[in-house]
Specification:
Layout: E1 2-14, E2 25-41, E3 45-50, E4 53-58, H1 72-84, E5 90-97, H2 107-121, H3 128-139, H4 149-156, E6 159-163, E7 167-170, E8 178-183, H5 190-203, H6 205-227, H7 231-248, H8 253-265, E9 268-272, E10 279-284, H9 289-297, E11 302-306
Helix pairs in contact: 1-2, 1-3, 2-3, 2-4, 3-4, 5-6, 6-7, 8-9
The structure holds (3R)-3-hydroxy-3-methyl-5-(phosphonooxy)pentanoic acid (PMV).
Length: 314
């Protein structure tokens, strides 16, 4: 039996990095997806075919675990599901993604969520809660400090408010906006940047704590702006969030330039995700979408426009 699942890319609207240190974050999913299909096979191997590379390993061989293989999370899920179902057969997994890799759009989390649903789906139907738990465990195989926010939004879709301690909730919003997303084409390692922020925190504890307080206030105000459908204020707060991220040292010269260009016409702009490369987002509606897109396209970036995708894991 073939089991197929799909999960969306994500955007962090507010709170990246600070969320790892206990602050709230606001995230949404967008209409770019990864599709994972899995099949039970007689051969005692786990075979993975993906844009990150291909892999074939014996179901009980642990040799891959020692390596920093980007496919490790999928091996983790496959082994866990095979063990749980007490079977000696193997699994063939195919990952097809339209989410650019390593640029802050949650490619790794979406793959973990879709893989957890697809692989487990060969045997039984897990709840979204169980899939999320498995996906976060798998992602920790390559990124120990993940807040879990990305996997949560990729599983449930829409717009969410996330807090590592208190969990998350879906937000209802009638605010009609689009996001212009510009990929700097500089890839980043989330793990590396998160450790860089940890170093910043260790060296400047009071300053970092004051940043967290400011971020908390920005997010509370953003929630208010969302309730009041106030796009102007929401955008201004995004730009304030960017100023804090800039002070944390996660913005590159190219990202800073893209943010400045986007700010010229949009309601507000910031990086999204870990930074150190990756994407920026500009908040727009029909009145300023075309101008923002055209200006960013002139800056050697790959641009596209997205709206919130409410489907989550399917
Ligand atoms: O760049 P991405 O898509 O890996 O997003 C990372 C977001 C962080 O807040 C930096 C880390 C996390 O786990 O929340």
């Amino acid at each position: 039996m073939k089991s197929i699942s799909s999960a969306p890319a994500k955007i962090i609207l507010f709170g990246e990095h600070f969320v790892v240190h206990g602050v709230k974050a606001l995230l949404c999913t967008i209409d770019k997806r990864v599709i994972v299909s899995s099949n039970q096979i007689d051969e005692k191997v786990i075979k993975i075919k993906s844009t990150l590379g291909n892999l074939s390993t014996n179901i009980s061989s642990k040799s891959i675990d020692e390596q920093k293989n980007p496919l490790k999370p999928f091996l983790y899920i496959a082994r866990k599901i095979l063990e749980k179902n007490n079977t000696n057969s193997g699994i063939e997994i195919e990952i097809n993604s339209e989410i650019p890799i390593g640029v802050g759009l949650g490619s790794s989390s979406a793959c973990c969520v879709a893989a957890a649903a697809s692989i487990s789906g060969i045997f039984d139907k897990l709840s979204r809660e169980q899939i999320l738990k498995l996906a976060i465990e798998a992602e920790r195989e390559i990124f120990q400090k993940t807040s879990g926010a990305d996997c949560a939004v990729c599983t449930y879709g829409g717009l969410i408010e996330f807090n590592a301690k208190e969990g998350f909730s879906n937000l209802e919003s009638k605010m009609d906006f689009s996001l212009v997303i510009a990929n700097s084409k500089e890839t980043h390692s989330t793990n590396h940047i998160v450790h860089k922020v940890q170093d910043f925190k260790d060296k400047h504890q009071e300053l970092f704590s004051s940043f967290c307080d400011k971020e908390n206030m920005i997010i509370e105000k953003a929630l208010g702006a969302l309730e009041e459908n106030n796009l102007v204020v929401f955008g201004q707060l995004m730009s304030k969030n960017q100023d804090l991220l800039d002070q944390l040292g996660v913005t590159t010269a190219k990202l800073r330039n893209l943010v400045n260009v986007a700010r010229g016409t949009s309601y507000g702009a910031k990086i999204t995700g870990a930074g150190g490369g990756g994407c920026i987002i500009g908040l727009v509606d029909d009145s300023n979408l075309d101008n923002t897109l055209a200006n960013l396209k002139n800056q050697d970036s790959e641009c596209f426009v997205s709206k919130i995708d409410y489907n989550g894991l399917t």
